[in-house]
Design a protein that fits this description.
One of its GO terms (cellular component) is plasma membrane. Helix content is about 55%, strand content about 15%. It has about 450 residues and is of the alpha+beta class. The chain folds into three domains: about 150 residues, Beta-Lactamase (2-Layer Sandwich), CATH 3.30.450; about 90 residues, Signal transduction histidine kinase, dimerisation/phosphotransfer (DHp) domain (Helix Hairpins, Orthogonal Bundle), CATH 1.10.287.130; about 140 residues, Histidine kinase-like ATPase, C-terminal domain (Heat Shock Protein 90, 2-Layer Sandwich), CATH 3.30.565. A hairpin with a 2-residue loop joins strand 8 and strand 9. The longest helix is centred in the N-terminal third of the chain and has 53 residues. It is rod-shaped, with a radius of gyration of 51 Å. The two termini are about 45 Å apart. Magnesium ion binds next to helix 9.
Length: about 450
């Protein structure tokens, strides 16, 4: 239930309804309160309009006896309506002192309220001054209306509003939750489908056809991830086989030679030769294992760390110088074109450029020229090595950077080239945030890699 979308949607629906009902309930209550207040004022105005002319007409104390009786008659037993006549001459006064004990003779005419000691709600008053007439002095006539019954209506209405709103909110929350659950049905179906994918069968994919459009993208991405996983798995399987294969030959040689040596008596010189030959095999195995470890490190996301700011031209010249003997055998010349300053791991740069030049030297036409190009592409340096040689089939070009891949597989297994050179070039490129490329065109084979200057990243 934690973090459930249905619950969150239900809650959000409920919150929205809460907000909407709170606003509309407040508006409704205000409007009812206003109309109740209008109603009270209208009633006060009506009572004044009936009684004011009578009071104005009665101008002697004798008449006031009758008027008092009339006002008594008009005052209900529950004192919901009350009357006061305020005047200095006690012969004309009615209703006694005001309930709040204040002097109301100084208050302005019009509507006001007064608190009653025994009621919760105030009494609404309409005060009017009636001019003197004959022997009767000027007097103030006050009609009061208890607001309790009106406010009771308002309170009841408010309670009802709150109840209905609360009920509405709960209902919407439940409905929202249900709608969301219903709407999310395809997601559950999708996860069931994903769950039921058989563990051994990496070819299985989710069925995207039956899904609503919103989920199709997710399912397609998921299928993409499965496909990549499958590819990685296949590569890994092939890779294990390759490692075993690569190590088997030197191991078989070592075992065979040692067995033969042990079977017959040997003199020291022969044993020394044997050990020398064994050492070579062991060194070959050591190189493979070291290269493998280096590739594993790069693949786990290791980055170049020993950085220095260098001129690629100078570094490439050093590599070429170091490889002079290899180039000399086939009378090859190396031309370095272009230059760029970048911040890279120079040891790794030498390693990958040397791999490329060694390959070029191996496959170049004798007495030809190998071209090393150093170009800058924005923040990236692009290093490529071209040699004149047999065209390489596109089928191979795509795979040459893979571990243990050799275009001329049959020949390669026997010699010192175990097919990791270009994988190391690719690893070095990726450790510098770069890529590798290869193309074969017009009798020229080019292999290269790019590097992002590390300080600039
Ligand atoms: N300059 C080149 N010309 C033609 N083929 C090449 C060149 N460089 C590499 N290759 C092909 O790519 C394969 C892989 O190269 P690499 O990874 O360096 O392995 P290795 O050199 O150990 O065979 C080589 O076996 C070869 O078939
Ligand atoms: Mg090589």
């Amino acid at each position: 239930m934690k973090g459930s979308i249905s619950r969150r949607l239900g809650l959000m629906f409920a919150l929205s309804v809460m907000l909407i009902t709170a606003v509309s309930a407040t508006l409704l209550r205000c409007s009812l309160k206003q109309s109740l207040e209008d109603q009270m004022q209208n009633e006060l105005i009506l009572r004044h309009s009936v009684l004011d002319p009578v009071l104005a007409k009665y101008d002697s104390p004798a008449f006031w006896v009758g008027l008092r009786e009339k006002l008594d008659g008009l005052t209900p037993a529950d004192e919901r309506v009350r009357y006061w006549v305020l005047v200095d001459d006690p012969a004309y006064s009615y209703g006694g002192a005001m309930p709040d004990g204040q002097d109301w003779s100084k208050r302005p005419d019009g509507f006001s309220t007064v608190e009653l000691p025994d009621r919760h709600r105030p009494m609404v008053l309409l005060v009017k001054t009636i001019a003197a007439m004959g022997s009767r002095p000027e007097l103030r006539f006050i009609v009061g209306l208890d607001s309790t019954p009106f406010m009771k209506t308002l309170d009841q209405f408010t309670k009802m509003l709150i109840l209905i709103s609360a009920l509405g909110v709960v209902l919407v929350a439940l409905l929202g939750y249900w709608i969301a659950r219903f709407g999310l049905g395809p997601v559950r179906r999708l996860s069931r489908q994903a769950n039921s994918l058989p563990p051994g069968d990496s070819k299985q994919r989710l069925d995207t056809e039956a899904l609503p459009s919103e989920l199709q993208e997710l399912a397609v991405s998921f299928n993409g991830a499965l496909a990549r996983q499958e590819a990685a798995w296949c590569q890994l399987e092939g890779f294990n086989a390759n490692v075993a294969h690569e190590l088997r030959t030197p191991l078989t040689n070592l075992i065979g030679q040692t067995q033969v040596a042990l079977a017959h008596g040997r003199d020291v010189n022969e044993l020394q030769d044997l050990l020398q030959s064994n050492l070579e095999e062991l060194e070959r195995m050591g190189t493979i294992v070291n290269d493998m470890l280096f590739l594993a490190g790069a693949e786990s996301g290791q980055r170049a760390t020993e950085l220095s700011d260098v001129s690629l031209y100078e570094e490439a010249s050093k590599t070429v110088e170091y490889l002079e003997p290899v180039l000399h055998d086939k009378q090859l010349n190396v031309v370095i074109k272009g230059d760029m300053r970048v911040c890279i791991d120079r040891r790794l740069f030498h390693r990958s450029l040397a791999n490329l030049i060694q390959n070029a030297a191996r496959y170049a036409v004798p007495e030809s020229v190998i071209i090393v190009r150093l170009e800058s592409h924005g923040m990236q340096a692009q290093v490529s090595v071209s040699n004149a040689g047999e065209p390489i089939d596109n089928v191979h070009l795509e795979h040459l950077f893979e571990r243990f891949y050799r275009a001329d597989a049959a020949r390669a297994r026997s010699d010192a080239h175990h097919g990791l050179g270009l994988s190391i070039v690719r690893a070095v490129a990726s450790m510098h945030g770069g890529r590798v490329f290869a193309h074969s065109k017009d009798g020229l084979n080019t292999f290269g890699f790019s590097l992002t200057s590390q300080a600039a990243r």
